[in-house]
Amino acid sequence: MIVSLCVRICVECGYGSRKTVKVLEVLNEEFDLGLTEFFSYTSILNWVQKSGYHKYTETDFREYSEGYTVIIDESMMLGSEKLLLILGVPSAKTRDSSLTIEDVRVLDMEVKTSWNSASIGEELSKVEKRMDSPPAYVISDNASTISKAVRDKNYVHIRDVGHTIGLFLQKTYEKDNSFQTFMKEVTQVKFREIMRSAAYLLPPKQRTIARFMNLSDTVDWAVAMLNSFDRMKEEDQRIFQFIPQNQMLIHELNSVFQTVNTILQRLKDEGLSKVSSEECLSRLKTLSTSPNQRISSIGRLMTEYIETEYNKLSDKTKKWHISSDIIESIFGIYKGRKSPNKMNGVTKHVFILPHLSNIKNMKREDFKIRLE
């Protein structure tokens, strides 16, 4: 019972092993659990890692008897190492909502200083052997090494909708002079006014890498600033004078992202199917036929992408997953909970990931068997 309680506090509540000891002490005092001695944080960490390892190696995958798909990605450098993570999920999408951590299972984890298509292909082969069958399809971003590995294995490759549309936006706007000027102003005002009276009006933080994937927040900020500009103080208007100067570009980006975000949400929630594809293609007609060359370019690229991915469906009556957001979320959780010492690289703490993907069943687990 104590092992189960400690592991659940550590995993489900997001506490470290040291904080878990303190929580156990508080619970013992408040509810008179009768504990006369407490375990060290290293023991609790050991329980989490051992039971996570057992879950990783011994998980029953009967739920995938109707077919499975894999979601694959490699992390950013953790010290001098990269973690390749392969998740499994039933191939048929049955729920009209995005994937959650409880929906996936960790099928494979491997660490190397670098990954190429051959080494990634070896990991995919290990998963195929473990599951006794190849995946129905593979979801990943557009990384060249992963894409080649999937092609070499003759698997069906579904390109993640978020990363792919982000690439289309980057291709269209990255080298555009008006866009570069606007984004330069946005960046400069964040650094210039951070400790001044106008700091509360500053734009949201953007990703350093793949920044076009969360450009929507900056566009929403710019639209709100434009709508309230006449009501702002004179000094604030002077600081943010570049906003009305770029109002044509702001309205253009807002128009694009209204359509893009609607399509992203629909495909992430409902998956790739005949119905969702037809509705998305219908919405894209307004972009594709726009007299604005940049808007029409994005519309055509997105139309071609959806048509290409839809044609990969083995059965046009089926509904497939098309987003790899969940693997990004899991990487984020791991990076947030690992040691901040970058020299450590990937440690045994990675075995918390199999726990995260099966939290709802944790209460029913036999931790005695897991530790043995």
Q: How many strands? A: 5
Largest sheet: 5 strands, mixed
- Order the strands across the largest sheet as they lie in space: 3-2-1-4-5
Q: Tally the structural domains.
A: 2
DSSP summary: helix tally: 16
Structural class: alpha/beta
Low-confidence stretches: none
Share in helix: 40-55%
Which descriptor suits the 3D outline? globular
Radius of gyration (CA) equals 24 Å
Percent of residues in beta strands?
A: 5-15%
Distance N to C terminus: 15 Å
- Helix and strand element order: HHHEEEHEHEHHHHHHHHHHH
Mean pLDDT: 90
Tag the structure with descriptive keywords.
372 residues; globular; 2 domains; 54% helix; single chain; Nucleotidyltransferase, domain 5; alpha/beta; 5-stranded mixed sheet; 5 strands
Describe this entry's structure for a reader.
- The chain has 372 residues and is α/β, with parallel strands linked by helices.
- It contains 16 helices and five strands.
- Helix 1 packs across helix 3, helix 4 packs across helix 5 and helix 6 runs antiparallel to helix 13.
- The longest helix is centred in the last third of the chain and has 24 residues.
- The radius of gyration is 24 Å and the shape is globular.
- The protein starts with a helix and ends with a helix.
- The mean pLDDT is 90.
SSE layout and pairing:
Layout: H1 2-12, H2 17-31, H3 41-58, E1 68-74, E2 82-90, E3 105-112, H4 117-131, E4 138-140, H5 144-152, E5 157-159, H6 161-173, H7 177-192, H8 215-228, H9 234-239, H10 242-245, H11 247-270, H12 274-288, H13 293-310, H14 325-337, H15 353-356, H16 367-371
Parallel strand pairs: 1-4, 4-5
Antiparallel strand pairs: 1-2, 2-3
